[in-house]
Automatic annotation (TrEMBL), chain A:
Keywords: Chaperone, Disulfide bond, Membrane, Metal-binding, Mitochondrion, Mitochondrion inner membrane, Protein transport, Translocation, Transport, Zinc. Belongs to the small Tim family. It comes from Oleoguttula mirabilis. It is a peripheral membrane protein. This is Mitochondrial import inner membrane translocase subunit. Gene3D superfamilies: Mitochondrial import inner membrane translocase subunit tim13 like domains (1.10.287.810). The twin CX3C motif contains 4 conserved Cys residues that form 2 disulfide bonds in the mitochondrial intermembrane space. Pfam families: zf-Tim10_DDP. The lineage of its organism: Eukaryota, Fungi, Dikarya, Ascomycota, Pezizomycotina. Heterohexamer; composed of 3 copies of TIM9 and 3 copies of TIM10, named soluble 70 kDa complex. Associates with the TIM22 complex, whose core is composed of TIM22 and TIM54. Interacts with the transmembrane regions of multi-pass transmembrane proteins in transit. Mitochondrial intermembrane chaperone that participates in the import and insertion of some multi-pass transmembrane proteins into the mitochondrial inner membrane. Also required for the transfer of beta-barrel precursors from the TOM complex to the sorting and assembly machinery (SAM complex) of the outer membrane. Acts as a chaperone-like protein that protects the hydrophobic precursors from aggregation and guide them through the mitochondrial intermembrane space.
Automatic annotation (TrEMBL), chain B:
It holds the Pfam family Tim54. One of its GO terms (biological process) is protein transport. The keyword Hydrolase does not apply. It comes from Oleoguttula mirabilis. InterPro entries: Lipid_Phosphate_FormReg, Mt_import_IM_translocase_Tim54. It is found in: Mitochondrion inner membrane. This is Mitochondrial import inner membrane translocase subunit TIM54. The keyword Nucleotide-binding does not apply. It is a single-pass membrane protein.
Amino acid sequence: MAGVGGLNAAEQRELQGRMEQKQMKDFMNMYSNLVQRCFNDCVNDFTTKSLLGKEESCVMRCVDKFLKSSERLGERFQEQNAQMAQQGGMNAGR
Amino acid sequence: MSDKPSTSAAETAAGATSTANVSNATGTLSSAAPPKRPVVDNPAFRAMGLPRLRLPSRNWLIFLSITGSFAGAVLYDKWQTRRVKQKWADVVSHIADERLSTKNMPRKLTVYLSAPPGDGLRSAREHFHEYVKPVLVAAAMDWDVVEGRKEGDVRHKTAERIRRKRKRAGEGEPMPEEEAAKQYAVEMMREHNGTSEYDGLAGDLVIGRNTWKEYVRGLHEGWLGPADAPQQPVPEPSSNLEQSKHVAGQPSLGDSVEGAANVVAADTPDASPAADDSASSSNQEDTTQADEKPQEEKKEEEKPKARNPPASITPSEYHSASLSSHTPEMVGPSTPIPFPHILGFLNTPVRTYRFLTRRRQADDIGRQVAAAVMASTYRPYETVTVSDEDSASGSGTNVPEQTQILVHEEANWQKAVRAPRKEHEESVWIEDVVLDERLASRMRKFELTSEDEARAKRVGDGTEKVTKPGENS
């Protein structure tokens, strides 16, 4: 993806746009995963249209935990990625 | 009076039945009915109303009693080890339920594992998986394993870790920026994100006497030796120049291998860190030496190279060395864990006995690991009295406790361990444990408090219930 040498302005703008698109896509993916998981796990009672009290609190906790765990996972992934990138750079030189 | 007709009737009946029997016998001889065995009639059983039991023959009895007792002993031992492991896992399970914020790392224990003399790493790993790991998993503890396949590996790796910590803190020669970024990529990313390491005790679990010796040696080398990594001495006359030049970083990462023309060195089937070392150290030299390289590489290939770089400081130099300024007040509390391991055909009775009493081992190891996991107290190592073999009066000398940890395991080692070492092999296992007072006073040992012991006993008896995860809490 990286061009030879530097990127000129037009390419950089395009790269920027693509990154933003990707981030948006990732965000929407995460949102739909979150909704699916929390709905499936928390909301079980369909005898009534409204959310019960326990379902409401369950959903809040579910969102909280999901975001915290994805934050943690993201951090670990970032660290490992950095390490791999460093070592990969060295391995490529071999 | 009434007897006579009845007896005569009985006689006639008996007569009739006997004739009937005879006729039956003659009639059925052709069909070859098996003769009936004489049934042992026990009047006591008959009185109790039990059916007519029949014991098997003498041979069967011998066989069944031997196999039955052996199988019973094995099953009882297996059942008890399972219970004991479950008990220790329950004792520490409350730690798994503690909360952890996203910006904090959990506590990490370091496990030092090395292959026992005469055997491979697999047996040590299985010992770890069977006795140590269940307790660690039940407490949701994070752990890091320092493995050693041959003598000296654990020493080298321990010293490397300590040197790495020291370099990170800023000792030794400063590394260039990109070098530091490569080595400490994970740590730097964590600092960047604001993730903090666990603030509290870490811990070391050392499995086996040989590992303990290497661990102590590695500790001393790491904190007392120079902060820079030792060089693999290249056996060339020009090597003196290379040794004085310092290769920044650890030998195994070998960032200077890129561009090294010595692919020959990489082909050596021996330890590749050693090859990288010679390649990297020789890379420092100018290319004028390149033509000498092929012959010297061939010479090295014939002579086996030492697996790890030699220690940067020998035990005799401890008293003259200076302790690193970054040495923590307490060198991570350590817990030695017994690893009974014995080989040999003639030792089969001993091994059978140990196989049938593994529950005691499980209990002991579970206790040590639980002490390390709960980290409630730790005590400094004391001096113990060792009885002198030679003195007639039986008086003992006082030695530091660290030298006598798990010393009974040395009796299990084979004679081959005490054979004199070849040039490229290390001899940590047969040397005594040499301690430096400054470091030895900083070593601590995990212990279980008496309340924890009492609680463990109650959990084992069943009087204290431990809530499992998944139940309503």
